[in-house]
Design a protein that fits this description.
Elements (H helix, E strand, L loop, with lengths): L1 H17 L4 E5 L4 H11 L4 E3 L4 H9 L5 E5 H6 L1 H7 L3 E4 L11 H7 L5 E4 L9 H11 L7 H8 E3 L7 E4 L2 H8 L8 H4 L6 E8 L3 H18 L6 H19 L12 H16 L4 E4 L3 H14 L3 E4 L5 H13 L5 E4 L14 E4 L6 H9 L11 E8 L3 H6 L7 H7 L11 H15 L26 H5 L21 H23 L4 E2 L7 E3 L6 E3 L1 E2 L4
Parallel strand pairs: 1-3, 1-4, 2-3, 4-5, 8-13, 9-11, 9-12, 10-11, 12-13
Antiparallel strand pairs: 6-7, 14-17, 15-16
Helix pairs in contact: 11-12
């Protein structure tokens, strides 16, 4: 955030001093919208995000008079010719570690763009090799460290028998002196007292076309419901399910349809983990509402070889402290993966990064998540919060400010909400108005019919880590007995109670729909009775109107 604001301010200052009118920001695809929001929030200037087909992208540069044009590294590869013709006054290169490898096509394309001034932003200018600095500085000043053979001769320690092997680096003071004029470096300890308690970054992720189709289909089914004049309890339940599925689709199609596995968010998470956890050795907490999603993230972490612990509602409360201790005390364990079972009552201050894989409905739940890390005794002093948000989806609408805070909304939308919620007319109208405002111009493509979601197999471990996945799967021998019914081994009294509860539920639906009750027969205490000796089931009740 601080680097972004400084770059924006510098761009505005150069406009005033030099009369510059063309500033191009090159950043990650997921950060383009964030840059636009920051520019328009903290200045009087407008910004345009370059997107679309080649003609639309060209028009974005030449036909739009906004001061700031925002693009991403992948687009630069396609638009080098357009950018060369556009001839920007300033290029702001965000997350400049993307060009650390000078031999890549991306680095080459970025360096070919003509510019009068350049600004580079990066938290990690030197990640693994001294060549990283060489490549980034090449963009700022092509001649400062060139030629490469001279840079290598000055700073590389080469073995006599292995000329291609770099054994170390030397003359770093000389390099530091060369960079003095172009590098502004802030150490964390130097600015810790000035940093905010929390730095929030929203990463906007483009949905895959199949995700958009699913999401749009659910939105199309939702609109007639929220536009009804009167809502029945069944309508409210349908609305809850449709909204829930729209949110699930934003995470992964696998949550809806086990035959597909599309999740751009998981790909984005790879880069976040690589930068913060692998390269910067920071500890991170990742939250998702759904155990299926944490299951997918866990597999991803295991494939990356990153030690972690996983907490869900399946983990007994008495065993949770052991997971926290492992995360806190083991330097190698850098990720704590959790559902909202870990959102309250746990102390995870060993971490200083929180990733919300999706936005929860309830702002209080978001605060609870962050509160697990942002606690008294937190040594970092600055908590990084990263929200993964699907573009053009219900998640953007949630972020836009339609926040459901009351018990009413908790009951309707949260899985852990109360079983019964009484709706006054005012509360019902309030909910409908919020939903209508939130959905606004919801897309209406052809409806999508998904296959029924499968359940995660019971033998899937709820505590996953690379060691667990490396173990051979245990073979379970069949016991030779036939398959059991759901009531096998249950007492008749318990079965009778369950069946009567089900019938009472159906009777309740009928009463809500018609205003008339379904009653038990006069000669029977309950609508359903089980003979304790024969096992015979008798069902007797009176339908309204008879």
């Amino acid at each position: 955030m601080m680097k972004t604001l400084q770059a924006i301010s510098l761009g505005l200052l150069k406009k005033e001093i030099f009369g510059f009118s063309k500033i191009v920001v090159v950043t990650l695809a997921s950060l383009k919208e964030q840059w636009k929001r920051e520019i328009e929030k903290f200045s009087h200037e407008k910004a345009v995000v370059i997107a679309g087909n080649p003609l639309q992208r060209k028009a974005g540069y030449f036909n739009d008079d906004c001061l700031f044009k925002i693009t991403n590294y992948e687009a630069v590869l396609r638009d080098v010719t357009i950018l060369s013709s556009y001839n920007p006054d300033i290029i702001i290169l965000d997350e400049a570690q993307r060009i650390k490898n000078f031999s890549t096509k991306t680095a080459d394309a970025v360096k070919r763009i003509p510019k009068r001034h350049a600004i580079v932003l990066t938290g990690t200018p030197l990640e693994n090799k001294l060549e990283d600095v060489y490549s980034i500085v090449q963009f700022l000043d092509p001649y400062l460290l060139t030629p490469l053979w001279k840079f290598a001769a000055d700073h590389f320690l080469l073995l006599k028998n292995k000329k291609s092997y770099i054994a170390g680096y030397r003359n770093l003071d000389l390099l530091k002196d060369k960079l003095k004029g172009i590098v502004i470096r802030r150490k964390k300890e130097d600015v810790l007292k000035d940093l905010p308690d929390e730095v929030v970054n929203n990463y906007y992720i483009d949905l895959n076309p199949e995700q958009l189709e699913m999401h749009g289909g659910y939105a199309r089914s939702l609109m007639p419901l929220i536009n009804k004049k009167y809502l029945t309890p069944m309508d409210l339940r349908k609305i809850q399910v449709l909204l829930l599925r729209m949110r699930m689709v934003c995470d992964s199609t696998y949550l809806i349809d086990r035959k597909t596995y599309i999740s751009p968010k998981l790909k984005e998470l790879d880069g976040i983990i690589d930068e913060l956890v692998v390269q910067n050795k920071r500890k991170m907490v990742i939250f998702s509402e759904w155990t299926t999603m944490t299951f997918l993230i866990a597999k991803h972490l295991s494939d990356m070889g990153i030690p972690f612990v996983e907490l869900s509602g399946k983990v007994p409360v008495k065993k949770r402290q052991a997971l926290i201790d492992e995360f806190t005390n083991n330097p190698a364990c850098r990720v704590f993966l959790s559902t909202d079972a870990g959102g309250t009552g746990l102390n995870l201050q060993a971490a200083d990064c929180v990733v919300n894989f999706e936005l929860p409905w309830n702002p209080a739940k978001m605060n609870q998540r962050i509160g697990r890390v942002s606690r008294i005794g937190q040594e970092s002093g600055c908590i990084n919060v990263i929200n993964l948000i699907a573009k053009n989806s219900i998640e953007e609408r949630i972020l836009a400010g339609i926040q459901l805070k009351t018990d009413l909304f908790k009951g309707v939308f949260d899985d852990d909400g109360p079983d019964a919620v009484e709706f006054s007319r005012e509360k019902r109208d309030e909910m409908l108005n919020r939903l209508r405002a939130m959905m606004g111009d919801a897309p209406e493509p052809e409806g999508f019919v998904s296959s029924a979601p499968e359940e995660i197999p019971e033998d899937t471990p709820c505590y996953l880590n690379p060691e667990v996945l490396d173990r051979a799967e245990e073979t379970v021998e069949a016991d030779g007995q036939g398959s059991k019914g759901v009531f096998d081994g249950q007492a008749p009294e318990k079965i009778e109670t369950v069946l009567n509860s089900g019938l009472e539920f159906i009777g309740g639906l009928m009463e809500m729909a018609t205003g008339r009750k379904m009653e038990r027969s006069n000669d029977q205490e309950k609508m359903i009775q089980i003979d304790r000796e024969t096992g015979e089931v008798t069902m007797k009740f009176k339908l309204p109107g008879f």
